[in-house]
Specification:
Blueprint lengths: L11 E2 L14 E3 L5 E3 L10
Parallel strand pairs: 1-2
Antiparallel strand pairs: 2-3
Amino acid sequence: MVAPLKIGNNDTIGAGSVITEDVNNGDLAIGRERQVNKKDRSITKKKN
């Protein structure tokens, strides 16, 4: 992560990603070359 930035609630960050922009709630952020945020694509764990 490259500060300063904001990470929202229920986000998923791709392993090995370099995050350079804010990530909104519930988004999936992947950034190997240029960061891409996918709106409402985060995965939520189900409770047993």
